[in-house]
Every structure is written in structure tokens, then in C-alpha cells.
């Protein structure tokens, strides 16, 4: 029976285990308690232990005599603490000996009732008070704790961590964040039950470690844990202990837990911000498989301040035109001579104080906090306006591809928005390409695929960007709605390094052939690479070999140079 079960039991009376070797005492107590309790009687400690094992989860209170044959009340107090189902039952000791009280308290008894029972009402009131106090405490614990791991949840964790500061005012404390690598994937591949076991195992280790170092632990997200404890010179021992416990769960699955530590945290700082720092340190090694523990540093702090600045400045930067769009040509290499066939729109930020900022810096940042949608709409519109202008001035259509972040794909109005854009600039969706990174496809889900399909049905062309960097299964590939595959840059950049990469490129080209879509290879810098790609059957090339991304005025030379289209 659960806690709520016990509460509910009040309507049908709660259950009291009354343990006394003298039948008359058992009967007397039964009589006193009978209006509020059903009674389970036991004549010695051994019988009591048996009932605790069998019915522990249903028992609301244990009234325990100390001196009994076979097994004493002291021994019961001792033993029941090792029994999961009985550990949390409140114990009231029945005694005529004041001397035993201290020892019983040490063993976990919560109250005493003196024999003989001269004041029955006082006995009942006392038992009821203990039971209600316990039930209330359990209710509070249920609200404070994560049900899976038993650790605190975030809100209570911050509260108790603050209390810990007041209790240990002279002591340096560390804020630690722990995150399981690719937990979602782990869950998917091994099943939820396995994922739960992993979380519980980590929770158990952290609770133990916290207990040893005046600390507290919390689960603050599906696979994010926080630990607040006395300052440690190294977290290697904790990391090893976690490793051992996780290895015991499975030989086959390797689980990496990342640590971010904000050591000797500034106690003036709000608790939440201290853990933001620990988490930032933890996130910073997300892609660094060699490092498992990262300590918050001045450098990381400077990076955070910089990121904060960029986020604050974005709105104003859009309004004052600090973002500009560069275009990088894509050439069709199927024929004798390469032919300009389209361009990719790539954003640049000319910040009045921080100078030129690469999208590699700010795009991932804006993707994390959702600001990207606002910026993208601005870029998409600039690109459409540019296409219109080129069409009017040069009389040719240069299809342009824009990058679409996966966050945008969750916006149900996206299709409508693009359709409005086409109408506003009198463009057709067939000349407006959307580059969607491969990892977006693998991330989710029916909703995402439905959005991409809807965009294609509306006539837009979709390129799968960074193809080969994600984890698409072959099976998924055949289901995916795409019009072109754009190979991740690393393939071409590693061509020289090994013959294997050439083979991989050939295989990918063949795969695209099976899917009936053209391939685009980006990041092409050398003649050799062009030759190799051409012989492997690649259709379109983009890279410094032809041109870096250029401001629109400079890009125009390509339009003027070769007006043919593919
Ligand atoms: P991406 O979409 O994979 O874009 C290709 C990147 O490769 C561009 O970097 C481009 O300048 C660079 N590149 C092109 N040719 C070569 C080459 O031959 N060698 C080398 N080493 N690099 C080459 P860029 O412009 O810095 O953009 C970086 C990333 O930022 C892009 O990767 C894209 O993911 C993102 N990005 C850029 N503009 C936008 C945008 O408007 N919206 C979104 N969501 N993301 C954008
Ligand atoms: Ca792209
Ligand atoms: Ca790419």
C-alpha cells in the first residue's frame, strides 16, 4: 500500500502493530485504540519481524514492548531499519523503565508510552499525533522528492542548499552538475526501464556521496543531476564510483556522465546562478569525449558574458541592419564546364563594437534559446528580396537556399509564412530551397517529418544539410522527404587522409542515386577534390575552390559571368 493508501486507510481505520509478550497488555492497548485502528497483535520480536516483512507497507504505527522473550524490542528496532517496507514506520516504545529511553531514541523510536496505561485518552491522542506527524512528513517528502530517484527536486533543493549554507557558514561548498551523454538515445535503444535503472543508480551514488560530504543531491531534469557538497579537491573518486555502479548495470552499454563543477561557490550569488555556472561547465564538454569533468573557469565566464551580450544585442542588430547576408555559389559539375546553379544564403553580423562575428558563434547560441526564429525570418526575407532584385536586374532566376533551424520546424505556421514571402516577392517556391540539417531529421518524430513533407507539397525544395554527420539509419533515409543530399564537409576535407573516405563518398553518391536525388558537396577547396568528386558522380559543388561566401554586390560577378542555369 502506498502512502496515499495509508491515508485512505483512515476511512477504514489504520493498522497498528502491537507487540507485547503479555496478552493483557496487548488487549488493553487494542481496546484503547480500537475506534481508530485495526490491531495486529504479536507476542514477541520474531513474530513482529515476520508481520513487518509481510505487511510492513500497510502498517501505520508500531507499538513495541522492550523486554520480551525470543527477540527483544531493542533487536526489533535494530533489524527493522534494514527492512525496506518497515524502515519508515514510526515506533512508539511501551516501557516502564525510564532508563531505556535514550537508547531507544538512538535506535529510532519516536515516542514512549508508560505502562501501566492509566489514561487511555492520552494514550490514543499520543498515538494519533505520532501517526499524523509521520503521514504529514511523508506527504511533504513526496512533494519534495523526485519519485524515481528519491532525490530532491529543483525547487526544494535550492531551498535546502540555502539552509546548508547557513549551517556551514565557514565551509567552502561546490556546486556540481552531472549530465548523462545522449540519454535520449540510451533510453530509445535500451528501453525506458533500463533508462530508469540508470537514473536510479546515479541517484543512489549521489545520495551516498552527498551524505558523506555534508551535501545534498537533486534530479533537476530528465538526466540532469545537481550536487551541493563540501569542496572537493577532485571529483575523480566520485566519477570512478559512478563508473563502477553503471558498469554493473550492463557490460554492453557504455554510459558517460559529464561533470561540471563550480568550486568553492560564491555564497553571495543566488543558488540558481551557482548551478547555472556548474551546468555551463558541464555543457562546455558535451562534444569533448576525452574530458568528463570540467571546472568553471574565468575563460568560460568570459564566454558566457559574451554570449549574454550577443543575446541582448540581437533585437537591436536586426532593427539597425547589422546582419547581412552573404551568398556562396554552388556549381553544377556534371558537364564539361562548371555552371553556376544556385547560392546558399549565409548570415554575417557586423557588430558596431565587437566587429565581424561568424554565424558559427551566434547561430548555435540563438538556437539554444529560441531567438533564432526571429533572426531567421529576417534572413529569409532578405534573401527573398535579393532574389527579386537579381531577377529584375539580370532577368535570371538564381535559386537561393536558406538555412532552417530545427526549432522552426515545430512552428505550425512556417509553411504559411514562407508562402506569404513568396507572394510578397513574386517568387515561386521551386526557386527557394530550404537547408535542413540532418540531425533535425533524426531528432524527432512524426511532427517534424510532417512539416517537411508539407513544405515540399507546397513546392519548396528541401536539402538535407550536413548529411553524414547525424545518425540516420538506412531505413529512415528511404522514408525521408528530401530533394537533395548535401554531404557534410568533413568527408571532402578528409579525402586526402585516407582512401577509405573516397570509398565512403562513392557509397554516399550511390545511395543518393538510389534515392533519386542529386548530391551537393560543400567545403571543396582543391582541384584534386573536384576531380575526385566528379569521378564519383557528384552533381553540385560548393566551396572556396569556386568562391568564399560573398556580399551580394560581389556575388553578382557570377551572375554576369554565366547566365546559364542548370
Ligand atoms: P553550413 O550551413 O554547413 O554552411 C557552410 C559553412 O561552410 C559556411 O560557414 C561556409 O562559409 C563554410 N564554407 C563554405 N565553403 C567552404 C570551404 O571550402 N572550406 C571551409 N573550410 N568552409 C567553407 P559559415 O558561413 O561560417 O556558417 C557556419 C554555419 O552557420 C552554417 O553551416 C550554418 O549551419 C550556420 N548558418 C549560417 N547562416 C545561417 C542562417 O542564416 N540560418 C541558420 N539557421 N544557420 C546559418
Ligand atoms: Ca547550410
Ligand atoms: Ca552544411
Cofactors, ions, other ligands:
ligand C2E, calcium ion
Mean pLDDT: 90
Question: Could you say what the CATH topology of the largest domain is called?
Answer: TIM Barrel
CATH uppermost class of the largest domain = Alpha Beta
Helical element count? 22
Task: Please characterize this protein's 3D structure.
The protein has 22 helices and 19 strands. By secondary structure, it is an alpha/beta fold. The protein has three domains: 3-144, 3-Layer(aba) Sandwich (Rossmann fold); 154-296, Alpha-Beta Plaits (2-Layer Sandwich), CATH 3.30.70; 317-559, EAL domain (TIM Barrel, Alpha-Beta Barrel). An eight-stranded mixed barrel has the order 11-12-14-15-16-17-18-19, surrounded by four helices. A five-stranded parallel beta sheet has the order 2-1-3-4-5, with helices on both faces. Helix 8 packs across helix 9 (192-212). It starts with a helix and ends in a 5-residue tail after the last helix. Ligand C2E binds next to strand 12, helix 13, helix 14 and strand 16.
Amino acid at each position: 500500500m502506498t502512502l496515499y493508501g495509508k491515508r485512505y486507510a483512515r476511512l477504514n481505520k489504520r493498522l497498528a502493530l502491537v507487540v507485547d509478550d503479555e496478552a493483557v497488555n496487548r488487549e488493553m492497548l487494542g481496546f484503547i485504540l480500537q475506534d481508530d485502528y485495526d490491531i495486529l497483535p504479536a507476542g514477541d520480536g520474531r513474530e513482529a519481524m515476520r508481520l513487518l516483512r509481510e505487511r510492513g507497507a500497510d502498517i501505520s504505527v508500531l507499538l513495541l514492548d522492550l523486554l520480551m522473550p525470543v527477540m527483544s524490542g531493542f533487536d526489533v528496532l535494530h533489524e527493522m531499519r534494514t527492512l525496506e517496507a518497515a524502515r519508515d514506520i514510526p515506533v512508539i516504545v511501551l516501557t516502564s523503565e525510564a532508563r531505556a529511553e535514550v537508547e531507544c531514541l538512538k535506535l529510532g523510536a519516536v515516542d514512549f508510552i508508560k505502562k501501566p496505561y492509566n489514561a487511555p485518552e492520552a494514550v490514543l491522542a499520543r498515538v494519533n499525533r505520532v501517526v499524523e506527524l509521520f503521514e504529514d512528513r511523508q506527504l511533504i517528502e513526496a512533494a519534495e522528492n523526485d519519485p524515481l530517484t528519491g532525490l530532491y527536486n529543483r525547487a526544494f533543493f535550492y531551498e535546502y542548499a540555502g539552509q546548508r549554507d547557513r549551517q556551514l557558514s565557514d565551509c567552502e561548498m561546490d556546486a556540481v552538475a552531472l549530465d548523462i551523454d545522449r540519454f535520449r538515445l540510451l533510453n530509445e535503444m535500451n528501453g525506458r526501464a533500463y533508462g530508469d535503472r540508470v537514473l536510479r543508480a546515479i541517484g543512489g551514488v549521489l545520495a551516498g556521496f552527498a551524505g558523506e560530504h555534508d551535501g545534498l543531491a537533486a534530479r533537476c531534469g530528465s538526466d540532469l543531476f545537481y550536487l551541493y557538497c563540501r569542496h572537493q579537491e577532485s571529483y575523480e573518486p566520485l566519477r570512478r564510483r559512478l563508473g563502477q555502479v553503471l558498469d554493473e548495470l550492463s557490460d554492453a552499454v557504455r554510459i558517460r556522465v559529464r561533470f561540471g563543477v563550480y568550486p568553492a561557490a560564491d555564497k553571495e550569488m543566488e543558488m540558481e546562478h551557482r548551478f547555472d555556472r556548474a551546468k555551463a561547465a558541464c555543457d562546455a564538454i558535451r562534444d569533448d569525449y576525452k574530458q568528463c569533468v570540467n571546472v568553471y573557469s574565468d575563460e568560460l565566464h568570459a564566454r558566457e558574458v559574451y554570449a549574454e551580450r550577443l543575446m541582448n544585442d540581437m533585437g537591436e542588430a536586426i532593427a539597425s541592419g547589422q546582419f547581412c547576408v552573404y551568398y556562396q555559389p554552388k556549381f553544377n559539375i556534371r558537364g564539361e564546364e562548371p555552371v553556376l546553379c544556385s547560392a546558399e544564403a549565409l548570415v554575417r553580423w557586423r557588430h558596431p563594437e565587437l566587429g565581424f562575428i561568424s554565424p558559427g558563434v551566434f547561430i548555435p547560441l540563438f538556437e539554444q534559446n529560441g531567438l533564432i526564429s526571429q533572426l531567421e525570418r529576417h534572413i529569409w526575407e532578405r534573401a527573398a528580396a535579393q532574389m527579386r532584385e537579381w531577377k529584375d536586374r539580370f532577368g535570371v532566376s538564381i535559386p537561393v537556399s536558406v538555412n532552417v533551424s530545427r526549432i522552426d520546424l515545430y512552428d505550425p505556421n512556417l509553411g504559411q509564412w514562407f508562402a506569404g514571402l513568396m507572394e510578397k516577392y513574386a517568387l515561386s517556391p521551386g526557386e527557394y530551397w530550404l537547408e535542413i540539417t540532418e540531425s533535425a531529421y533524426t531528432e524527432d518524430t512524426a511532427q517534424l517529418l510532417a512539416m517537411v513533407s508539407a513544405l515540399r507539397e507546397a513546392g519548396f525544395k528541401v536539402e538535407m544539410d550536413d548529411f553524414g554527420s547525424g545518425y540516420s539509419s538506412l531505413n529512415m533515409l528511404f522514408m525521408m522527404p528530401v530533394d537533395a543530399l548535401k554531404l557534410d564537409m568533413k568527408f571532402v576535407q578528409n579525402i586526402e587522409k585516407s582512401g577509405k573516405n573516397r570509398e565512403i563518398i562513392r557509397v554516399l553518391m550511390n545511395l543518393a542515386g538510389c534515392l533519386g536525388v542529386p548530391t551537393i558537396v560543400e567545403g571543396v577547396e582543391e582541384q584534386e577534390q573536384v576531380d575526385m568528386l566528379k569521378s564519383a558522380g557528384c552533381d553540385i559543388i560548393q566551396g572556396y575552390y569556386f568562391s568564399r561566401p560573398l556580399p551580394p554586390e560581389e556575388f553578382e560577378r557570377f551572375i554576369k559571368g554565366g547566365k546559364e542555369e542548370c
